[in-house]
Amino acid sequence: MQEGVDVIIIDNGKLSLTVVPTRGMNIFEVKCGDVRLGWDSPIKELVHPSFVNLEANGGTGWLYSFNEWLSRCGMSWAGHPGQDGSRHLSLHGRLAHIPASEVELVADADPPYTLRLRGLVHECMFKGCNLELLSEVALVPGSATFSLRDVVTNRGRAPEEMQMLYHANFGQPLLGEGSLVHGMVGRVEPFDDDAAADVENWDRYLAPGSVKPGGERLYCIEPFAGEDRRSHFVLQDSAGLKAVRCSFYPEELPCLSLWKNEDALESGYVTGLEPGTSFAHNRAIERKHGRVPKLSAGAAREFNIEYEILSGSEAVAAAVAAVEAAKKGQKPTLHTAVIAK
């Protein structure tokens, strides 16, 4: 199933990062010491896009290959499958199953000697969209921090809708009973009735297998920016010894989807912290709520996300304290009913 899939591994001496150009420049996993960004999906292979029918099972064919740490959703649409006018949209768009057309690795000649892996991905069709993604992952030798910089450009001659959602997925060792999310949150809205029933516990996790088979909860979070214009989120393990910090600009990515899949380990015990231009509803719903951007001909939008892997109680505590300080005492507003329909 993974015949023909290209993989690029970058090791900066501190962390290693595995990129899959054949799958839209997705990132399979990141390793730094005893911390791994990734999860254990029932799907063990990096499935080649030619084996994936996105329209299968009512438009959920995307799930037949879902196992990466970071899967980009978009560009024409993201979110749940279903009708949008006369068109049936599949789950999370086509981007994760479009091979990159060009890939280059650049090492800066001057300090700090940043390594940059870039890929160019085209989503286009005759009499349809003509969108281009220039993706870049950058890391400095010896650092536990890396960044993503994506630019989406409309190469067509007419305005075009676009959506981007960064489906970053975390399993063990960061995820476990008692794991916590700390973040700069203005509002939390449940995605559906299952999430609404437990909205007060949106930021904490249960043990594997604590929900019914296939059960999941999804929360729509409105992040706010601090003095550095960024919003910061920390996912920590229950002991406070390991964590990851995610930082992004709400002016670029105004929505965060928090996905909690507390299923059994063999079924995929995982959580997603997913910054996006919109939430994970079908595009028709997101458009109704004004969350589907439109690019004019030749226009582009840029998205920047930074991740830092934290090890040791002091580093984790410092990151959590920094988030709390940036919040300046602001408490999130919790909605107990599903609003966006």
Task: Write the topology of this structure.
Layout (H helix, E strand, L loop, with lengths): L7 E4 L4 E5 L5 E7 L2 E3 L18 H4 L10 E6 L6 E3 L2 E3 L12 E6 L7 E10 L5 E10 L5 E10 L5 E2 L1 E8 L9 E4 L1 E6 L2 H4 L20 E7 L7 E6 L5 E7 L6 E8 L2 H4 E8 L6 H6 L5 E2 L4 E12 L1 H15 L5 E2 L7
Parallel strand pairs: 15-23
Antiparallel strand pairs: 1-2, 2-3, 3-4, 5-13, 6-7, 8-9, 9-10, 10-11, 11-22, 12-21, 13-20, 14-17, 15-16, 16-19, 17-18, 18-22, 19-20
What does this entry look like structurally?
- With 341 residues, the chain is mostly beta strands.
- It has one domain: Beta-galactosidase, Chain A, domain 5 (Distorted Sandwich), CATH 2.70.98.10.
- The protein has five helices and 23 strands.
- It has an eight-stranded antiparallel β-sheet with strand order 8-9-10-11-22-18-17-14, with helices on one face.
- β6 and β7 form a beta hairpin.
- The mean pLDDT is 97.
Low-confidence stretches: none
Domain module count: 1
Largest sheet: 8 strands, antiparallel
Count, helices: 5
Counting helices, strands and paired strands, the structural category is mainly beta
CA radius of gyration? 19 Å
**SSE arrangement, N to C:** EEEEHEEEEEEEEEEEHEEEEHEHEEHE
Q: Give the number of DSSP strands.
A: 23
Top CATH class = Mainly Beta
**Largest sheet, order of strands side by side?**
8-9-10-11-22-18-17-14
Helix content: under 10%
CATH architecture descriptor name? Distorted Sandwich
CA distance, first residue to last residue = 37 Å
The proportion of strand residues reads: 35-45%
What is the fold-level CATH name, i.e. the topology?
Beta-galactosidase, Chain A, domain 5
Shape: globular
Mean pLDDT: 97
